[in-house]
C-alpha cells in the first residue's frame, strides 16, 4: 500500500499534505486530530521512515510546550470566569494546538521522505512551468535539507582541524559556521543550476515531455485530501 | 561543429585573461585532449568549447563562438553538450544511481522502459549494475565520478567535455571509460573533449592535442606519439628519473613502536554491507603506506576511521600513547572542494593553528612558510574557491602540514596535479616521513605510490590483500 502511495507524483503528495494541514487548523475536535496524527505516524512507520527526524520533530513539539503552555493558560484565564475554568480552557487549547502542529510536521515529513528531488523536478516540469521557475522551486525546496547537510559537513571538516563542536552551544560561535555554510550553499546552488541546465531542465519542455498521469497512488492521495473535509468541523 | 575565433575570457574581478585569443575549429567525431600545467586555463577553454561558459564561469568572454553553425555568444543550445567537472559530487542531486542516470531522459519525455534499458546497458558495461538502486551517499568518490560520467553519457550529447574524468577512478574503470568514449566517437560522431594531466592515458585515446600555457594555446595538432608519449621515454625510465630526483627516505626503524595500529577493523555504512571487515595494519614513524585498491575498496573509509570520523564495530584504532586523533592526526580530504571553507587562503591554512591558540603573528609566519613551499606564497589574501583545482589541492595539504601532526592521512593527494606538482608532492611526503611522521596515502596513481611510499598495501574485500615494500625502491 505505502509503495503505491510513494510512487504517486510529488504534486499529489503535496496536495495531500496541504489539505491535511489546513484541515487540522480548521478542526477543533482533538479526537479527530489524534486520529489524523496516528494515520500519518502509521504511514511513516509502514514505509520504514519513522526515524530520528520524526523523533526530532516530536522533540521540537515537546520543547515548545512550556512557552506555549504559558501563553495558552494566560489566555484561558483571561477568557474564563474562574481560575480553574481558565486553566482547563487553556490546557484544552494547548492540546489542540499541539496536535495541529504535529499534523503539519508529520505531513511535511511524509512528503519530504516520500519525494525524491527528481520526482519533484519532473512533476513541476510536467505542469509545463517555465524551466527557470522549475529550477528555482527545486532549489528552494531542497534549500533546508541541503543547508543542514552542508552545516554537518562543515562542522566535520572544522573538527578535523581542532574545532570543538561544544563551542556551538554559545550562539556567538555560529558565525564561523554560518559563513562557510552560506558560501557552500551558494556554490551548491550554482552547481545545481549548471547540472540541471546541462540536462535540459531549464529549457521549454519538448512536446513529448512527460505529462502528469494519475496513478493509483495519486488517486488515493487526492481522494484522501478531499475526503478529510467530509469529517466534522465542529467539536 | 565548434568554432572559436579570438576568444578571450577575463574572470570577474580579475584584470588578466585566463584564456587569451583562442582560435579553434573542431569537427564531428574528433577526440581532443586538452593538456597544460595547473591553472593554465584548460577548464576555461573546455567550458567555451562546449558552450557552457555563460553557465559555469563568471566573467567576460570576447571573440566569436559558434556551435553547429549557430552563434554561440550566449552558449550552446540545450542538449548540445554534456559536461563532467572536476568535482563529481557537485553535479549529483538524486537519491539513487538510477535516478541520476534517468533524470535527463525523463525530463525530455523518454518513457521509463527506455530509461531502464539505457541505465542497465551503461551500468552493466562498467560492472556497476548491482549498484543501480544504491544511494549516492553510500558510494565512494570514484563511484560517484563514474555515476556523473554515465549520467552525461545517458543524455547522448553531441559534444562531451570531461574534466579530469579519471582522477578518482581505478585503472580498470579508467581504461574501460576511454575505450567506451573512443567507440562512441567513432560510431556516433560525438566530439569528446578530455582535460587530463595523464598524457600517457591520453596517448591511446586522443587524435588531437591542444596544449595551453598561461591561458594561451601553445600547441594544437595531431596527438602523435612524440606529443603524448614523452618522446619515447618508457614508463620505467620516466619513474626511475623521477625517483632519483627525490629526497631519500631514512631507513625505517623496525624497533620503533607504531604510531598507528589498526586491529580487526570492521566498518560499513549499512550493517549488512561492511566496507572494512577485519582489517589489521600498523604504521611506524618514517613509514609511508600507499593504500591501493579498486574504487569502493575502503581506502577513504580507513583514513576517516584513523581520524576518528567513524567508529569501527568491532575493532580498534590505536594511536601511540600520548597521541589523540583530534590533535595528532591530519586528514586531507579526497575532494579539496569538500575541505575548503574559509574566506582567504591564509585563514584556511591557519585554521588548525587558530584552534590551537597560536598567536596571529606566529600563525601568519607559519602559514607563509607552508604556503610558499607549495608555490602559494603570493596568494594569502585570495579567496580559496577562486584557485585552480591543483592549487586548492596544494592548499589543503599545506593547511594540514602547518600544524605538524604526527600521523598524516592523505586521500588521493595527487588528483588534479600535473607531473611536476605530483613529484613535488612526493618530495614533500618523503620529507614528512624523514621527520618521523607516519603517512598513509590512498591513491590509485601507481606513479605516485612508486615515488612517495615505502610500503604498498592493497585492500580488497575489506581486508589487506597484500602488504609489500615499494617495488620501485632499491632494496
Automatic annotation (TrEMBL), chain A:
This is ABC-type cobalt transport system, permease component CbiQ. The chain crosses the membrane at residues 53-75, 87-112, 133-154, 211-231. GO terms for cellular component: plasma membrane. It is found in: Membrane. It holds the Pfam family CbiQ. Keywords: Cell membrane, Membrane, Transmembrane, Transmembrane helix. It is a multi-pass membrane protein.
TrEMBL record, chain B:
PROSITE patterns: ABC_TRANSPORTER_1, ABC_TRANSPORTER_2. One of its GO terms (molecular function) is ATP hydrolysis activity. Transmembrane segments: none annotated. It comes from the Bacteria. The keyword Chaperone does not apply. Keywords: ATP-binding, Nucleotide-binding, Transport. Signal peptide: none annotated. SMART domains: AAA (SM00382). Residues 2-239, 260-473 form the ABC transporter domain. One of its GO terms (cellular component) is ATP-binding cassette (ABC) transporter complex. SUPFAM superfamilies: P-loop containing nucleoside triphosphate hydrolases. Belongs to the ABC transporter superfamily. This is ATPase component of ABC-type transport system (Duplicated ATPase domain). It comes from Solidesulfovibrio magneticus str. Maddingley MBC34.
Amino acid at each position: 500500500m505505502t509503495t503505491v502511495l510513494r510512487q504517486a507524483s510529488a504534486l499529489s503528495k503535496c496536495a495531500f499534505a496541504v489539505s491535511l494541514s489546513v484541515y487540522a487548523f480548521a478542526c477543533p475536535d482533538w479526537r479527530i486530530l489524534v486520529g489524523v496524527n496516528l494515520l500519518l505516524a502509521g504511514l511513516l512507520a509502514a514505509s520504514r521512515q519513522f526515524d530520528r527526524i520524526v523523533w526530532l520533530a516530536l522533540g521540537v513539539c515537546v520543547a515548545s510546550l512550556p512557552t506555549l503552555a504559558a501563553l495558552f493558560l494566560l489566555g484561558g484565564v483571561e477568557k474564563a470566569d474562574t481560575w480553574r475554568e481558565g486553566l482547563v480552557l487553556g490546557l484544552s487549547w494547548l492540546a489542540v494546538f499541539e496536535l495541529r502542529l504535529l499534523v503539519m510536521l508529520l505531513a511535511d515529513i511524509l512528503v519530504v521522505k516520500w519525494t525524491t528531488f527528481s520526482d519533484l523536478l519532473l512533476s513541476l516540469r510536467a505542469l509545463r512551468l517555465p524551466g527557470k521557475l522549475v529550477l528555482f522551486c527545486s532549489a528552494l525546496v531542497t534549500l533546508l535539507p541541503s543547508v543542514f547537510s552542508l552545516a554537518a559537513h562543515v562542522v566535520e571538516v572544522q573538527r578535523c582541524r581542532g574545532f570543538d563542536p561544544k563551542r556551538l552551544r554559545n550562539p556567538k560561535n555560529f558565525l564561523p559556521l554560518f559563513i562557510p555554510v552560506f558560501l557552500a550553499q551558494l556554490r551548491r546552488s550554482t552547481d545545481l543550476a549548471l547540472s540541471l541546465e546541462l540536462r535540459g531542465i531549464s529549457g521549454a519542455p519538448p512536446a513529448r515531455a512527460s505529462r502528469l498521469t494519475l496513478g493509483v497512488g495519486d488517486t488515493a492521495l487526492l481522494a484522501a485530501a478531499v475526503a478529510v473535509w467530509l469529517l466534522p468541523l465542529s467539536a | 561543429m565548434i568554432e572559436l575565433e579570438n576568444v578571450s575570457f577575463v574572470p570577474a574581478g580579475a584584470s588578466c585573461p585566463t584564456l587569451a585569443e583562442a582560435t579553434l575549429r573542431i569537427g564531428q567525431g574528433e577526440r581532443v585532449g586538452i593538456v597544460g600545467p595547473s591553472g593554465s586555463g584548460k577548464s576555461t577553454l573546455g567550458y567555451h568549447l562546449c558552450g557552457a561558459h555563460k553557465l559555469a564561469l563568471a566573467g567576460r568572454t570576447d571573440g566569436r563562438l559558434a556551435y553547429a553553425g549557430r552563434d554561440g555568444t550566449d552558449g550552446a543550445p540545450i542538449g548540445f553538450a554534456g559536461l563532467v567537472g572536476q568535482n563529481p559530487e557537485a553535479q549529483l542531486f538524486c537519491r539513487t544511481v538510477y535516478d541520476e542516470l534517468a533524470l535527463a531522459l525523463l525530463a525530455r519525455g523518454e518513457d521509463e522502459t527506455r530509461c531502464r534499458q539505457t541505465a542497465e546497458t551503461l551500468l552493466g558495461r562498467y560492472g556497476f549494475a548491482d549498484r543501480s538502486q544504491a544511494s549516492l551517499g553510500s558510494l565512494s568518490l570514484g563511484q560517484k565520478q563514474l555515476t556523473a560520467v554515465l549520467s552525461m553519457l545517458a543524455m547522448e550529447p553531441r559534444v562531451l567535455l570531461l574534466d579530469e574524468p579519471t582522477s578518482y577512478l581505478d585503472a580498470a574503470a579508467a581504461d574501460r571509460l576511454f575505450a567506451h568514449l573512443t567507440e562512441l566517437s567513432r560510431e556516433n560522431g560525438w566530439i569528446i573533449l578530455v582535460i587530463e594531466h595523464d598524457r600517457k592515458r591520453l596517448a591511446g585515446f586522443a587524435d588531437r592535442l591542444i596544449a595551453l600555457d598561461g591561458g594561451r594555446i601553445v600547441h594544437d595538432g595531431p596527438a602523435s606519439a612524440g606529443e603524448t608519449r614523452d618522446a619515447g621515454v618508457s614508463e620505467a625510465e620516466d619513474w626511475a628519473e623521477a625517483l632519483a630526483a627525490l629526497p631519500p627516505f631514512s631507513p625505517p626503524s623496525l624497533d620503533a613502536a607504531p604510531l598507528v595500529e589498526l586491529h580487526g577493523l570492521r566498518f560499513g555504512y549499512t550493517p549488512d554491507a561492511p566496507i572494512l571487515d577485519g582489517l589489521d595494519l600498523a604504521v611506524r614513524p618514517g613509514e609511508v603506506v600507499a593504500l591501493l585498491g579498486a574504487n569502493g575498496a575502503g581506502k577513504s573509509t580507513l583514513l576517516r576511521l584513523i581520524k576518528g570520523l567513524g567508529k569501527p564495530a568491532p575493532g580498534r584504532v590505536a594511536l601511540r600513547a600520548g597521541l589523540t586523533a583530534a590533535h595528532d592526526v591530519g586528514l586531507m580530504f579526497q575532494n579539496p572542494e569538500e575541505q575548503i571553507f574559509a574566506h582567504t587562503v591564509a585563514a584556511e591554512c591557519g585554521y588548525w593553528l587558530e584552534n590551537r591558540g597560536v598567536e596571529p603573528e606566529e600563525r601568519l609566519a607559519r602559514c607563509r612558510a607552508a604556503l610558499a613551499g607549495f608555490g602559494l606564497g603570493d596568494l594569502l589574501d585570495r579567496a580559496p574557491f577562486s584557485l585552480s583545482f591543483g592549487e586548492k589541492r596544494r592548499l589543503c595539504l599545506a593547511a594540514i602540514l602547518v600544524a605538524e601532526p604526527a600521523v598524516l592521512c592523505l586521500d588521493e593527494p595527487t588528483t588534479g596535479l600535473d607531473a611536476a606538482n605530483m613529484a613535488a608532492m612526493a618530495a614533500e611526503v618523503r620529507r614528512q616521513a624523514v621527520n618521523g611522521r607516519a603517512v598513509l596515502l590512498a591513491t590509485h596513481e601507481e606513479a605516485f605510490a612508486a615515488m612517495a611510499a615505502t610500503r604498498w598495501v592493497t585492500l580488497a574485500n575489506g581486508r589487506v590483500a597484500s602488504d609489500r615494500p615499494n617495488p620501485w625502491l632499491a632494496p
